[in-house]
Amino acid sequence: SPLEETSIPLFYGWFLLSSVQDKLRCTALDFLKTLDTMDAFKKHMADFSGKAEKEVDLEQYFNEKSTFHCTTKYCDYGRADGAKEYAQNPAVKKSYGSVFELSLVALFVTPRTVGARVVLTEEQLLLWPAEEEKQAESSSLPRGSRAHITLACAEGIEPVQTGLDLLQILALPQGEVVEEMGLGPLRYYGEGRWMLELRESIGAPAIFSSFYA
Ligand code: A2P
């Protein structure tokens, strides 16, 4: 019935508590500001600006997202493949409204998106969709590799791109360490793709819930 269909949300996911959201926002902003001033980044500036000499203000370049979350299943109100099955999964129903602690292990930047990589526990993987959208380059990556929080997107870029950018980075051979930053080693993966591995992961309390636009 139409009523049942509207009861399936746009997406399910873990929504960060506001305290950790503010902290993560500051951490991400500091990262962008520092990256912007680094010679190694300036050397590859054309990845972002299209021109070798043109400077880029990363703070201006990206539009920050308002509510930080880690999507588990994009349901599109029941229209997405596997949406109904996911909504009816007993693990999903049981955990709905519970608080989890997400482990943020890296921050990454590409000319399209800024995100935080999330590594899921066994318990959290129970809430990860069974049939994950398969990307050609990610076919050998373990389940849940796509887990992330979109922090910001460039003009005209949809947030769905963040997970695809992460999978692309993870499928590449590990990039060279370009610099040891305060938070950990910064690696370059070519084509404007940067990843900062956090020496100490950030523990982020988050509520498993859903979003209706
Ligand atoms: P993400 O999880 O990377 O932030 P939108 O506002 O475009 O409808 O998206 C709502 C949320 O669902 C966003 O958080 C977005 O990306 C995620 N999302 C959108 N489309 C997809 C998709 N096809 N597969 C997985 N996640 C998606």
Tally the beta strands.
Answer: 9
> What is the end-to-end distance?
20 Å
Shape summary: elongated
Structural class comes to: alpha+beta
Radius of gyration: 18 Å
Write the layout of secondary structure elements.
Layout: H1 2-6, E1 11-16, H2 18-37, H3 39-43, H4 46-49, H5 58-61, E2 62-64, E3 69-74, H6 83-88, H7 90-95, E4 99-109, E5 113-119, H8 122-125, E6 148-154, H9 160-171, E7 176-181, E8 184-188, E9 194-211
The structure holds adenosine-2'-5'-diphosphate.
Residues 10-11, 71, 74, 133, 150, 158-160, 162-163 line the site of adenosine-2'-5'-diphosphate.
Structure at a glance:
The chain has 213 residues and is α+β, with helices and mostly antiparallel strands.
